[in-house]
Design goal:
mainly beta, four-stranded antiparallel β-sheet, seven-stranded mixed β-sheet, 124 residues
């Protein structure tokens, strides 16, 4: 069983930056594919970014490409989401997710482990 927990959300003005952190309690953290999803009020959950196991491939949603950066520190069992040039439409609850093998990097259904989410609010 893998437990996942996010931190780092908050209120920021448009154009500002935030860094989200996610810690996963897994002995083999480096073997996990880690991802960030988000859900805005009244909208469906959407994929934001993913990073493959070890120091694998990086994937981004078109809406955040060039503004967000996902990274991982396997020694700390932590994945980060550095968010820059934030826009009001980035306002959402951000969820960290983890999976072992198989599936698609951008399908929430393929991730077995989820955090509780952290709120990010971007004011205009």
């Amino acid at each position: 069983q893998v437990q996942v927990g996010e931190s780092g959300g908050g209120l920021v003005q448009a154009g500002g930056s935030l860094r989200l952190s996610c810690v996963a309690s897994a002995r083999t953290f480096s073997s996990l594919t880690m991802a960030w999803f988000r859900q805005a009020p009244g909208k469906e959950r959407e994929f934001v970014a993913a990073i493959g196991r070890n120091f694998g491939s990086l994937y981004y949603a078109d809406s955040v490409k060039g503004r967000f950066t996902i990274s991982r520190d396997n020694a700390k069992n932590t994945v980060y989401l550095q968010m820059s040039s934030l826009k009001p439409e980035d306002t959402a609850v951000y969820y960290c997710a983890a999976r072992n093998y198989g599936g698609s990097y951008n399908r929430g259904e393929d991730y077995a482990y989820w955090g509780q989410g952290t709120q990010v609010t971007v004011s205009s």
